[in-house]
Amino acid sequence: MEWTFEEFKTSLDELHPEIKEKAIEIAKKLVIEKSYSRENAIKEGVVKAEEWFYDLEG
Asked: What's the rounded Cα separation, in Å, for the pair 27 and 12?
């Protein structure tokens, strides 16, 4: 199943493209593997993706 998280489009559009892509990737895994709700998964995905991105940037 392809998760698009369309209902969170507005908040995701404000993110850097790499962070957005990573957040969706993380959120998909959380929904599938950990049974997170879509809302909680995207929130957690954004936080983790931002941490990932800023760690890359140094």
From this structure: 12
Give pTM, 2 decimals. 0.85
d(CA 31, CA 29): 5
Domain boundaries defined on the chain: 9-57
Residues 6+ apart with CB under 8 A from 36: 27, 30, 44
| Residue range 15-51, pLDDT digits in tens | 999 999 999 999 999 999 999 999 999 999 999 999 9
Q: How far is Cα 24 from Cα 49, in angstroms, rounded to an integer? A: 9
